Each structure stands twice: as structure tokens, then as C-alpha cells.
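Technical appendix A lists one of the benchmark inputs used to test multi-chain prediction within the project. The record comprises two sequence entries:
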Amino acid sequence: MEDTNRSWYFVERPAGEPDADCFELRAADVPEPAEGELLVRVEYLSVDPYMRGRMRDSESYAEPWDVGDVLSGGVVGEVIESKSDQYDAGDLVTGEGTWAEYSVLDAGDVAPVDPEIADPPAYLGVLGMPGRTAYFGLLDVGDPNPGDTVVVSGAAGAVGSVVGQIAKLNGCRVVGFAGSDEKIRWLTDDLGFDAAVNYKATDDYGAALEEVAPGGVDVYYDNVGGPITDAVFTKLNLDARVAVCGQIAHYNAESVPTGPRKLPQLIAPRATVQGFLVGDYATRFEEASEQLAAWVASGEIDHRETVVEGLENAPDAFLGLFSGDNVGKQVVRVAE
Amino acid sequence: MEDTNRSWYFVERPAGEPDADCFELRAADVPEPAEGELLVRVEYLSVDPYMRGRMRDSESYAEPWDVGDVLSGGVVGEVIESKSDQYDAGDLVTGEGTWAEYSVLDAGDVAPVDPEIADPPAYLGVLGMPGRTAYFGLLDVGDPNPGDTVVVSGAAGAVGSVVGQIAKLNGCRVVGFAGSDEKIRWLTDDLGFDAAVNYKATDDYGAALEEVAPGGVDVYYDNVGGPITDAVFTKLNLDARVAVCGQIAHYNAESVPTGPRKLPQLIAPRATVQGFLVGDYATRFEEASEQLAAWVASGEIDHRETVVEGLENAPDAFLGLFSGDNVGKQVVRVAE
């Protein structure tokens, strides 16, 4: 092909909050797929909070990016050239690609996109990694029972919004914390949350929680950490489960954050707190994807994507995650 | 009976560290057992860290003491008068009694003491509630596998010393934190711990841990909390389990203690942190008691009691728990 391919490179490790200096847009030749690979024209790319961890120069659950790497992440796009018999040119697929106009994906790691079930960007959200994270984190780690009160932080995000709806489908009372009145309305009016707290409109989270969850908390699905989590830990019921999915409030911390100690609070309720990673459920991804697709197709699970236009705005879309700019899944539209 | 009965009363709630003002020794008539009860002459009584929680004016896992109550706790003693056909005068028994010379116990709640298996005070330690706490907390919550590195805080206490030995019997590598060279020697020379750290001889617990547990921590049995726990949380291995038994470092705190946030540290290792109470295992107490008695009888589990002489010194024995005066189980000898 004659085209050039613009891609975002990771050029500087951030100290604290990342900014535009961490990213550089460069043009290069469109890559060639090798045997078993697909050349994909990227239509949508995903920016996710966990990527902040990849910017650190230390081993974590996601492999760190090296300075000079092309940034990677989930994409949806059209197969332009296939070196695999699994897919043909013209197919819509999703998988792990790059922040770029064209990306080479391993055919064995991609999944087909069916626009009849949902618009393509949903495959980066409710029908992608965030949806599966919600599914396994809530059902396997949170283990909700009908009648349980489930509290979700980051409730209007890609993961939290799905968590709350799955909890409702399981007969739970669901309370969300989110950061704008628009988000609160979405949660309660559209998604069926029983109550939601705009944490930017109060600083007494304990009182807010007492109001919306007077019977205490049976399951806490935590995407955020910080003072919301501090309040929830004072209200854990007997045998409460806390699923630690993310701690976005602390991702940009330059030193180890401090706060109220939580271990003393676990003894009386015999509570269990568990960190988890969706990747550990890889052998069950199909189960989750099928169930989520069924719920989306039937309308039992609603979803929303916040779309930033243009590859050139991908860093801004990523940085906006930390100020809560997104409602639902944050994606970048790279091409039609 | 003509005798008087001296008993310790709880006369003032402490703010922060309790002191002698909280306790008052009063004389009264020896109580009369009702039907189904036993009058017991107390030989040994138990003082335990969890009792600090009963001094608070708030619901917790142990019912709070009211100001004016006789202090209660585990005792070993001789049945003086039996109103039950389960026990006869002269029998040695253990159960929940009072800080007193004579105590009335419910025959249905006591267990016989067999001095052939161990000296009577051991029935307040390894063969009593602390031993069962070690047994269930390690085996059920910690769930150790052979080859695991198990770290125990408060390792030379009544619970910790048993935890470490059960872990050794399960093929683990065992590391203890304790507060004196004498305790360290006991752990490593007599109890078979692989290593032990005198936390009063260093303030770099991270470096100390790196030395004694270079491969990280698979199971952490926490009796203490605070900076030792902070260090351990930085070294949790994949799928690590943390059993939160006690947090004695914080029991006297007058406000909510703060420290490094731990939830962000749980995600990469997918660690599980669980609070528990031994009372929840009541239906399996017999299993634990039989196993512990067998291990003690065979010499596979060693034990030690620190004996304070005289009922009048019971408050000091209790207060000494918070400065780590005891090696093994702290008991008070009330009578021969």
C-alpha cells in the first residue's frame, strides 16, 4: 500500500498526572501483515484507565510500555488484508491493536464484530474487555445474592455501568457513585440503579451512603478507591465482599497514597476484599461474551459510548478518563 | 459457703490506652450455681487482646462490657459444686467465666481439662480459643499449600505461635515477626520457624522481609496491623491470602488510624484479604480441639504460657498484652 500510517508513540514517562508530552504522533509506512495476521483499518480505538499502569517503569499486571513504543490498546476495524483463513478482507473485527490508523492484529486473538447486535464501538465497552471485567468481577468476586445491596464506584464508567445492570438482573439493590448530575440521571433513569450519588456534589460520603444504603453494603465493586471507598468500608455488612477492580483515584499518585486503615474494619463483618484481573478468566471469555451479547440484544443491558473524534485527539481522550469526562465507554473514532 | 469472692469490675471506659483506673477489685459473696450450672474455683484466667474491643461503647463482634460489669473471660478451674449431671465436684474444666476467685459456668458451655495432655493453663491457649483461632484462621482463611511462604505477625503470641507451627506441619516456609530477641529465639530454636524478625530492632521492615522472605509472601496471618503489615502488603505473591485475625497495633487508637492505602496493592497479585472470627467455626470446634490436643500430646506443637501470679495482678497482665510482655499465652494464676 502507498498510504502512510499515523500512530501515537509513548515518548515520555509521566511523573504524576500524564500530559500531552507523553505522546507523539508520527507517520510511517502502513505495516505488512505476516502469516496468520490481519491488516486492519482502525475505526475505533479504546482508551482505558489501566493503561496508566503501563506508563510506569515497573512490572505490574499489564506489561509496561517502553519509551519509544507505539501505544497499544483495543481496536475495532475493518480487515484490509488477511493472511489468515479465519477472516476475509471486509470483515469487521475487534482485538488488541495500536493507537493508529492501521494496525496489524493476530488473527487468533481477534473476535468478529456483529453490527446487528450493537454498534461497533460497543465492542470496546460492554461487549469487550470492560464488559467482561464487569461480568467476572461482579459475579465471581462479588458473588451477589438476590436482595443484596451492591455499591459501585465509577458507576457511570464502562465497567461500572455494566456491573450495576448485571447486579439488577441478579435481584440486587444497586447504588452507584458517579461524578455529574448527567451521569446520575443516566444511572437511575436509564440503567435502573436504585440510587446514585454525585460525589462531586458532597464531601460527606458517609452521610450520602447512609441515605442511599441504610441497610449497609453487601457487595462493593470498586473502580476508584479514595474517600468513596473509605466511606463504604465503614458500612460493610456481615460477610461483605469487596471486588477491587481499579483504583483510578490513585493511579497518578507520585508517592504511596495514605488513608484510613481498612484492615481493622474487616474483622467484625468478616469481610473479604479481593483484587482481580479479567485476564485470569480467559478460558471463560466466551461465556461472558455470549451472555453480554444476549443481554444487549434483548435490551436488558443498556450501554453508552463517549466518542472523541479523530486519532489526533486520542491522548486527550485518555487523559479525560482521569477527570471523568466520559459517560460509559470512552472511545476514539479514527475512521468511519 | 462462707467464703467471700473477689472479682474484678469494669468501672471506667478507657480513652486510648486503658490503665488501672478501668478496673476495680471488689469482694462479694460466692455465687450460687443454678440448675445446669457449675460453681468453679478459678485456677487460671485468660486475658486476651480482643477484650480491648469489649471496653468500647459500640457494637463489635464481642458484646461490649457495660460499666459496672464483672469482667469476663476464659477460665480453668475445679468444680466445687455441680448442678449438672455432666460434671462432678472435683472435675477440672474450662469455659467462659469471670475475673474472679469463684465463677459460675454453664455446664453446657464448658469442656473438660485433661492434665495428662497439657498443664491446665494450656487450655486457655493452644488447647483453647487462641489455638482454635490459629487453626481455622490459618487452614480455612489462609489456605496454605506446601512450599508457601507464610508470614505471621504477633508470632510469639498465643495465636501466632500456633499458626506458625501448623504452617510448618503443612510444609510451608514460616517467617514470624515478634518483639524481643527472647521471642525470636523461641520461634526459631524451639518452634521450628524458618526465620523471625525482631521488629523492635529495626524500622525497615521491608528490608527485613526481603531478607527472610525473598520469594515474597503467599499467606499472611495478621494479628497486629500497622507498619509490619504495610511492609508485607508490598511483597504479596500471586493469589496471596491475608487472614486478618487481629490488629492489636490499632486497638488503643483514639481516632481512625491512617497508613498506606492497600487496595491498589491487591490488584496485581489478585490477593484476597479476609477478616474472620473463630466463633463462626463453632460447629467445627471439636475437630480443632482434637487435632490440637493430638499435636500437643505428640510434641508436634509446642506451647508456652506466661503466668502472672495472683488475681490482683489481672489488669496488669491484660495491659501487658499491648506492650508484648507475654511469650506465648498470657494467663493469670488465681489459685493452685
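Chain B has two domains: 4-121+303-333, 130-279. Residues 242 and 273 of chain B are 5 Å apart (CA to CA). Comparable benchmark entries are summarised in Table A2.
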